[in-house]
Amino acid sequence: MVATPWTLVRFLDECENAEKENSSDEVFISTTTINLLTSKECVSDILKDRNCPNQDVLKKRIYDRRCPAKIIFLILARADMLDRIGEFLSNDFSDHHLPIEVLWTRVGYKLKSAKDSDWITAPFGAGIHYRDVDYFTQKQWPFLAPIFEREFEYVLQQGIPLPLVEKGNAIVSGFSSVSKIKMHPAHVPEQIEHSMAMKKMELESEDQIKYVNKEMTNVKSLRLLDHDHLVKAILACTRGKQALFFFPWAKGGDLYNFLKSNSNEGMAAIIWMLDQMVGLCSALSLLADKGYRHGDLKPANILLFPEKSGSYRLKITDVGLSKLHILATSRRLNGTTAKATTRRYSPPEFDLLFDDDGEPVEDSDDIKLSRKFDIWSLGCVFIEFLIWAKLGRQKYKEFDRSMKRDRRFWDSGREDLDDKVKERIQNLKDAVEDTEGDKVVQRVLELALKQMLLVNSDDRSSASDIHKKLESIRDSYKQDLSGANDGMDQNEPEPSSTQDEGLHTTAVPSGHTAAMEQQSAKLLNQWTVNPDNEFAKKFFSETSSSSPADRSRLCDSCLMLSIWEPNATISGRMRDFQTLASTCDMCNLLYAISQRLGLEEDQELHCIRDGSTFKLKGRDGPPILSLFSDPAYNSDDLGSVQVGYPTLSPPESPERYRLFQKWLYVCDNEHGHARDASSGGCAVQMPTRLIYVGDSSEHLEDIKDSGFLRYLALSHCWGGSTSLSTLTSNIDKFRSEIPHEQLPLNFQEAIKVTRALKIPYLWIDSLCIIQDDPEDWRREAARMGQVFSNAYCTIAATSAAASNKGFLTPKLNSALSATLKTPEGGLLHISEFMENCNRDLESEPLNTRGWVMQERALSRRTLHFTKTQVYWECGNGLHCERLFKLSNPQSALFADSDFPKAILKYYKGGRITLFQNLYEKYSRLNFSYTSDRPVAILGLEKHLSSVLQTRGEFGVFEQYLARSLLWSRPENIFLNSITFQDDYHVPSWSWMAYEGPITYANIPFDEVEWSTDCLLRSGEETGTNSKRTVLKAVARDLKLDKLDMHDRVKLDEGSGFELSNLRGVVLGKDKKRESRDQVYYVLLVTLSEDEAEQAKVYVRVGVAWLLEHNIAMDGEDVVIY
């Protein structure tokens, strides 16, 4: 039989039928249908049906494995655009780009695709117009439904449909809803049940988006917990501003509706209730043991799952979404149903989230709630369970109605249990008779009242204790009931047949990694910009520079701006700025700023003045404009406006060098930061060689008994380019003259700066160290720290990625600006904000090199030549060419002219934070040879050790040993050990032994008891006759399960040892607090073969944050290499 050929009409019918098969609101075409429609027969027939040219070429392209275009073919066929397929596929446009977005601009259209996160020029032929691409984007979505495989978490773009063939009515609660759904079987693995509960959260605020991203980690971790009374998520995804979680469907509904809909007949109901109470407590105990808190325990978050016996098992759901829930609850309007149902079971400490008027307090999402939060909530659930079991369904429904409208078990006004709750408790007590069934009700009631519903969270029993006592009550009851069933008999309550709620509202755990979260006030890593008018006024009073003429063209609206007002604002739409940009300098400036910010034509730019800057949207936003008061105008009544000009002096002008000289003069004479001929009474050691630049030519000089000399040092990138270097073959020639024309541009410009500053000598590594003499290189490399520390000033060629690029001329165009007159007749200049230290300094190629950190830190003063302007760094902070002063607490050490004395103004916590920040930053820098990692910081480490008055080696300080050792790799990155020469040993416990970035544990100060089980020792001190520095410690056996390894352990490298051989050295533990489990800070070690020692020795393999039960009591003395 001949197969019916495909036509476009048949193709379109197949697509429409495939969409109609689904009864959900998600419009998609299944992968089953897609496979049919992209079969070779279908593609060939349709290309032929539409008379497409070059059909063989097109088919090869459609099935290309590298650049497949099957989905593109389907979209174009359905859009009846196959006549354009050749142009669409002309430039490697493939299915990998889908989905795409299209943006129309004045100069054409741009695309954003799954492959390119930025807007790019469309990769199509010239014949494809905007309307074609726009229609293509409209037709793409049904073909892009995801196939959920083994991963748990997925990120979907807004518009991508879910492969749902069925979707029930949604139960809405707050900003979330729950629906019963059925997935298309071709889009989920075979072992997953197709019917699920889908919880959808609409994320309207940045806070909600932030917490969903954070809590996704908790939800994933909880999937490793195996417990019969916990519901585990199957998969999760985000789609635009939606978060979607998929859970097993609970056929019995939730406990809240069960209690309202089912009778309590028979003693079996009490037995079943006790079994479920024990199970729920056991689950809660496991969560607490692993450091989790649910945060929204209530009957609606306890689901019924059928068992083979015909009974139902209760399971806690919504574990893993707590912070999101608390955040949402604290933001909702009073009186909403969602808030009422949630708050009913909340403990007294929940009031911390609200003020006296019931409004959320500021930073309510940051308040740490008790870890016994859940015990109160479970006590409330038990009371309701008992009301149903003893007083019956009708009484429970009456009680439920009385608790509507935001009533809670806890009456915060009277600081007592609510009257309706007390009334029902009294009803329970009155109904109790002298029967076995009633006695057990009374015992559970007393347990709830005396050990769970207590005002002070510290007085409540733990989940583990409640579990044990409930087990005892249940087992005793079963023994007394001779012959009674373990489970429910034929009289067991049946769930209502009308129930269709598998999941209900939101739930919430506390982060189990609380000990790893930031708990101390770290020094803020943020640059602030402030005027420095004392210096500016002196500088301009001594210079003859005249004010630039007021030639600004201003429109009528800009003439009305009062930017001199302290709270001045500037706002307007990008379209309006664009219209006037050609005739108004201010609008031109604001249009350029709007473009840089990526605003759309109809979007509004809004900024407010904050001192000498205007900040985006508010004073907490980033600065986008700078304000300058003309030096001829008295700015005292303008309120902190920088005196100066927005434009820079020409690169090699006398005005520019006068500024550099003034910086040096003030630093020498007012700050006292100049290097004298002696330092602390000791003679300053000069470099071995210097370049003399005092006349029109330059030559190399050997510095022996020359005494103290002023010289500049150049910090620069070699950049892989071949440059003139000193070698054994040319050093004698260079002592006479260095050929200037053969020097790379960076060196020539460094000589210009040195001469302009009237300094006779310059030090450049490639010319002052003999590059082909290993002995000279080793000797001079060891003294590198002294070279920069003793230099009069350092020239940093920050903007030059290679030695031949040059650095004197800024790489970026000067800032746009406008000038406005004040009512008093003065001039105010406003310009683009240029002082971006992260861009200009920290992220530039020079400052990503490992060797440069030591050069920068040990330099007394530095002129940073960046791509925008020059920055001056000295002991008085960081200043820029436009005369602002910039500061960042974490960069304090770099601005220290006598490194690292600045660290002494901090207390112990600040000192630790500073050196940890320094080492974290250093670990992220690049080396041509990774074996230089411990060497390139030796001088810096020696200075730190001296000032801190402690032994320091390999990135570890003896005075702060435990904190020094608690470094680890970042998430999702493993480190690689570095291979060193045989005669050089870096210990395994030092981060210097590994390639890759590190981070330090954020451990609270003054809240940890540090152990004396670990000591820094030399080999001789341990009796091993080794010359290496080692750790002498007590190692203990560890008891770790799968979840502990996932949540509490961080290994340095991905493999290389047996987990069974893992042992731990306790470095410290939290001081005891009832509000949470004690965390033990542990160094992980294992036995390894050491070639140098020719024996098996203990080495570090990672760190861990463990609980007491994870660690054995007894240990043995070990030496860690």
Automatic annotation (TrEMBL):
PANTHER family: DOMAIN PROTEIN, PUTATIVE-RELATED (PTHR33112), TOL (PTHR33112:SF10). Keywords: Kinase, Serine/threonine-protein kinase, Transferase. The keyword Kinase applies. Residues 479-506 are annotated as: Disordered. Residues 165-470 form the Protein kinase domain. GO terms for molecular function: ATP binding; protein serine/threonine kinase activity. This is Serine/threonine protein kinase.
